[in-house]
Amino acid sequence: MTEFGNNHKTAIITGVNGQDGSYLADLLISKGYYVIGLKRRTSLINTERVDHIYNHPIDCTQFKMCYYDLSDGGAMTNLLLKYKPDEVYNIAAQSHVAVSFDVPEYTSEGIAGGTLKILEAIRAVNPQIKFYQASSSEMYGDSTDYDSLGYTETSRMTPVSPYAVAKLHAHHMTRVYREAYNIHASSGILFNHESPRRGETFVTRKITMAAARIAQGKQQKLFLGNIDSKRDWGFAGDYVEAMWLMLQQPKGDDYVVATNRTHSVREFLEVVFDHAGLGDYHKYVEIDPRLFRPNEVPYLLGNPEKAKRVLKWEPKHDMISLARMMYDSDFKREQTKP
Ligand code: NAP
Ligand code: GDD
Question: Read out DSSP for 96-139?
Fold first, then answer.
């Protein structure tokens, strides 16, 4: 018996401080789970996204945070032995594609090596533990293997960044452990998903934060790179439901999670600056060649037909409602700053 007792499900979430980790913790706690959220050691406290759970009088009784790093397989073995989880969600990663060109070894060791360490720990400790892997639409790279409905689970993947190559390694390793050892291991091939909790250096959040500051007279210019690339953007809160649904199926599998709509960064800018009442974004946006990447994924559109059919999953937000939600949140947040 663990310190939480036996009459509940227990889940471990790596990367609980991140965007998805925090929404997933909210969801699992609302379903009655006990959640062991894993964070890495940082020199400054960065638990802002889960502080509402930690400080909540009831929710905090279902939540515990422990230290973990993707490089530490022994630590995962100890956590599995100690907490006896039913489910492990591997959400942690150096998740910034542009940064992966600067620190490819670190990115790869964390994502590819780190995922393998967790799978090995599950195999050794208890192969009945269900496993979720955070795969990515970035894995498709510049593949032209899509039709008018977009990429599917079986489309050819030709990754074009160190991040995506590492994710593809982890994606295949998850399948290998599913097939070789009969582990309930699933990969969610998630297309871009955003929220008010999105990291501040991803393009959507960079835009909504800048627009909120410009609207309040605190900033004049926004510097961006390639604004012609297209992404299938959804809401992170919707996407963590798909993660959970995958682990409730009789068997592990791969699922595309997407909205089936694609928009350019330029269109996202237009929606945000219009909603902010700032008018034409050209007055504020400058293109900075330093923000272009050595390689770019030009176009992403996901076909979530399998997730809809098997998981009965549906996205509730599209790019427009998402952009407005993010801007409104940043506008309020900015108002409370000096
Ligand atoms: P995120 O906000 O960057 O969160 C990633 C989390 O991983 C952070 O809490 C981070 O810790 C932690 N982390 C990073 N390196 C680590 C390490 N070596 N050891 C332990 N923890 C580490 O990312 P996200 O947007 O929530 O994405 C969640 C996952 O889904 C990632 O694996 C990402 O690659 C993948 N994904 C994301 C999207 C998307 O559009 N959001 C789409 C497809 C796939 P700190 O808080 O200390 O930095
Ligand atoms: N970050 C950023 N900053 N991107 C910019 C900028 C900028 O100033 N200017 C233009 N872009 C373009 C990028 O070149 C890219 O084409 C697009 O905006 C989206 O960039 P990001 O928001 O950084 O996301 P991403 O698509 O590279 O990666 C995200 O989605 C993947 C799933 O497809 C991340 O969340 C990954 O972790 C995730 O796997």
Answer: -HHHHHHSHHHHHIIIIIHHHHHHHHHHHH-TTSEEEEEEEGGG
Residue 43 annotated to the active site: no
| pLDDT average, residue stretch 233-250 | 98
- Please tell me the number of the ligand nearest to residue 76's CA: 1
Ligand 1 pocket mutation pick from 16, 20, 27 by most atoms within 8 angstroms of CB: 20
Instruction: Report the run of H or E that residue 223 belongs to, with start and end.
Output: strand 222-224
Does the pLDDT at position 2 exceed 80?
no
Ligand number, closest to the Cα atom of 41:
1
Mark whether 163 is an active-site residue.
Answer: yes
Distance 201 CA to ligand 2 centre (A): 9
Tell me what pLDDT residue 5 has.
Answer: 62
Rounded to two decimals, what is the model's pTM?
0.98
Using an 8 Å Cβ cutoff, are 92 and 37 in contact?
no
Nearest by Cα to 19 from 263, 314, 235, 168:
235
Binning pLDDT at 50, 70 and 90, where does residue 338 land?
Answer: confident
Closest CA to 133 of 156, 161, 112: 112
- Burial-class residue 109 by CB neighbours within 10 Å (0-12, 13-18, 19+): middle
Query: Mind listing the pLDDT tens digit for each residue in 299-313?
Result: 999 999 999 999 999
Task: Say how many CA atoms lie within 13 Å of 252 toward its Cβ.
Answer: 26
Q: Which of 146, 194, 142, 186 is nearest to 164 (CA)?
A: 142
CA–CA distance, 313 with 301 (Å, rounded to integer): 17
CA 294 to chain centre: 23
| pLDDT band for position 171 (cuts 50, 70, 90) | very high
Q: Count CB neighbours of 144 within 10 A.
A: 9
Alpha carbon nearest to ligand 2 atom 27, residue:
97
